[in-house]
Amino acid sequence: MTAAVGTVDPQVVIDADGHVREPDDLWLGELGGAWGDQAPRVHTDDGGLFISVGGREVPARQKYARQVESLTPADVDRFEEAMADGFSAASQLAAMDREGVDHSVLFPTHGLALMGVDGVAPALTTAIAEVYNTWLAGFCAEGRGRLSGVGMVDPRDVEGAVGEARRCVEDLDFVGVFVRPNPVGGRSWHDAAYEPLWSAIEELDVPLCFHEGGAVLLPQVAVDRFDVHAFWHVCTHPMEQQMAMVAVLLGGVAERHPALRMAFLECGASWLPYWMWRMDEHVEAEPTQFSGLSLRPSEYVRRQCFVGIDSDEERLGGLDHGVFLPFILIYPHADVPIVQRSLQRDLDPGFHLALGRALAPLRDEDVLIVGSGLSYHNLRKITAADAQTVAEAEAFDAWLRDAVEQPDAGERERRLMAWAQAPGARACHPRSEHLVPLFVAAGAGGGDPGGRNYADPMLGKAVSGFRFGSSARAEGL
Predict the structure, then answer these.
(1) Least confident of 55-69, 289-303, 357-371
(2) Crossing angle for the helix pair 297-304 and 229-250, nearest 10 degrees?
(3) Model-level pTM?
(4) Start-end ranges of CATH 3.40.830.10 in the chain?
(5) Which of 120, 318, 337, 398 holds its CA 20 to 30 A away from the CA of 68?
(6) Better-scored residue on pLDDT, 343 or 471
(7) 14-318, superfamily in CATH?
(8) How many CB atoms lie within 10 A of CB 116?
(9) What CATH number should be reported for the domain whose range is 349-475?
(10) More confident residue, 16 or 330
């Protein structure tokens, strides 16, 4: 079953890295009078979208021109409604509803490029950030409480960045502050010049977010080596974040600011376990270079860092939330060895029942086999309370209990194999990834009877948990 930790509602789906599409004329209208030709101007040519600012142009034209269209035909189909509505807050909410997202934390599109230019007056880039943040606050205000902004600051102007960070959090009610991971002005992130900014963000008690974007006019891995978009784009997002993490952890920023939370976004997370190990190895091998660190880098990661996971990331080696959430509650103070196995991509019931049968001998060695899922999992209807939705959940829950509690193991498996024909089945499980773990447990149960050991309405929907056998360890749960 899904378990709650702290005050977070486990059924709320939050997109921690959503994006807005700023109006093309946003900065020209606000800054054109004061900055003239230096103010940002958006234009499209060579099959791409570019922004002129301060006499320079981003993103780097030679990396995009005639390679990547600003909107592909697939993009046009996907964004048709949003484009027609000018990428408004209403279109943002409509897109979230289609994807089953309850709340979105928002980052820019054009703004990421505009923060990727060296050689432009810091006063101009700070003004660019101020205009964007003010506009974003208005955008979020139209989101009916479902949209939160992350403030954009220009690290070239540390004093201005401190002031803008405070305005974003204290006046605009933003939930974080972001910078690109690329070094600016020849300074790495552990440079002492940034200490006032890190102190301010720490005091404001919001996360410092590192967010990479496309090819820009800053030091950026791989863009000096590859001309083909796909080649360098594979590298930039994770590798720039890896180097930013090295700077803030090995460079002592986390040590000096123990309450500063840091997020590394749009970079995947499969690299993180290896990177933690590699940083630890170097600190251990060359300790004289890191005398100011009281913890291993991996411990700073666990204490202060968050890394965004792509929803379809297949190689992530850590524990799934369906494992760590229940076990944090079951064994909060114990170091329990856990072996996590993934489901087959096709979610075939027969395969997973057979997998359970193959694991069954482990029960004789006092190994607890857990199928972690949920007997109801339709996020599009999770908050619905209409009579039909409630009735579908009750009907499927009753069928599931009857199937699991069949005294004959063969009949039990026959019924589970045909779960999709059960009343309310597809209304409760449009996809079966949260149901299939039960099949593994049922297969492992063998001839032991199954029984319901948990039942509770979840947002008005009937949900149940089941157990097979009566081992001493299961009794202890």
Answers:
(1) 55-69
(2) 100
(3) 0.69
(4) 349-475
(5) 120
(6) 343
(7) Metal-dependent hydrolases (3.20.20.140)
(8) 22
(9) 3.40.830.10
(10) 16
Delimiting residues of CATH 3.20.20.140 domain(s) in the chain: 14-318
* pLDDT given for residue 4 in this prediction: 29
